[in-house]
Specification:
The protein has 327 residues and is an alpha/beta fold. The chain is built from eleven helices and 15 strands. It is globular and about 60 Å long.
């Protein structure tokens, strides 16, 4: 099969190879998926650069997320799944072989129905971002009737979180860094979008909520935003964070937090309980089928140009997912 891989960590242009590898087979409880599109996340480029754990084996085929068609099944899997269009997640979790290849074998629970009106590239964008957004929004229960603030509302995780909170019946406020991104947040379902570069977020949130604040904050930069979060969170509210890149050591005033008695969640999609992952998959698949969850594709690259695709993700300027197509 055709695949991309690296045998050592380093820059994309220096370490990537593209060529032939052995085609995997479906083991017990697994499906073999013919991958048509492989999604790239920031985690993928960090891992290739050597920032997220050691090498697994002599070479690593990257990428956790993808979409394609089930072409074979292992023992214990219904053969009726053969021919099913699917989106896959955790393809690269705890092993060396990911989705940047023509074929990948993985547990059948990680391959989920992709509606016919969704392209493979759109399906390849789901994975890590959507499976992170769902627990961010719903780990602490239903959001119907609540006000939810989503920081970075035009980003991959943030955009899904806006859509999901809207689907759950929440009033959504998003923070963004430009007018273009404000439009994307509103299109996704945010009632209000605040440009944090030109507006006082705390003052604007208080204005929009009549001084009441928000019930939940979905946080992309916990350390950098913590002082604002304390000001806008209702007593007993929830902070659900999935990143803090700018300020990874989070400073906060204990007694300032004590007055709000908040719940602080640190969410990682890979370590969520299997039962919750199953609920996430069910909700994501249902919303897609109902036309209530959309994915944004920024750019597609052929497999031969995987290094350029990684460089684009490292630049971080695109809006939407970067996908490698494998046809």
């Amino acid at each position: 099969m055709r695949a991309a891989w690296y045998a050592e960590f380093g820059s994309a242009k220096d370490v990537f190879e593209v060529g032939e590898q052995n085609t995997p087979t479906a083991g017990d409880g697994e499906v073999l998926v013919r991958i048509h599109a492989s999604g790239i996340n920031p985690l993928d480029v960090k891992r290739r650069a050597g920032e997220r754990g050691p090498m697994v084996g002599n070479r690593m085929v990257p990428h956790f997320d993808g979409a394609g068609v089930i072409v074979a099944v292992g023992t214990g899997v219904d053969s009726a799944r053969i021919g099913e269009r699917v989106w896959v997640f955790e393809g690269h979790w705890m092993r060396g072989d990911g989705t940047a290849a023509e074929y990948v074998s993985l547990p059948e629970s990680r391959a989920n129905p992709l509606p016919d009106d969704q392209s493979f590239s759109e399906g390849a964008c789901l994975g890590i971002p959507a499976m992170t957004a769902h627990p961010l929004v719903f780990t602490d229960g239903a959001v119907d009737g609540q006000t939810v603030l989503v920081t970075g509302a035009a980003g991959a995780v943030g955009n899904y979180a806006v859509q999901m909170a809207r689907n759950g019946g929440a009033t959504v406020i998003g923070t963004v860094s430009s007018e273009e991104k404000a439009l994307l947040a509103i299109e996704a379902g945010a009632k209000h979008a605040i440009n944090y570069k030109t507006e006082d977020v705390a003052a604007r949130v208080k204005e929009l909520t009549g001084g009441k604040g928000v019930d939940r904050v979905i946080e992309v930069e916990l350390g950098g935003n913590i002082e604002t979060t304390v000001k806008i969170l209702k007593t007993g509210g929830v902070i659900a964070a999935y990143a803090s890149m700018a300020q990874p050591v989070v400073p906060f005033s204990f007694y300032g937090f004590l007055m709000k008695s908040p719940t602080l969640r640190i969410i990682g999609c890979f370590t969520m309980p299997d039962a919750f992952k199953a609920q996430s998959v069910a909700d994501i698949s249902r919303w897609m089928a109902e036309g209530k969850l959309a994915s944004s594709v920024a750019t597609e690259f052929p497999l031969a140009e995987i290094a350029a695709a990684h460089e684009m993700v490292e630049g971080g300027r695109q809006v939407g997912g970067v996908v490698v197509t494998i046809d």
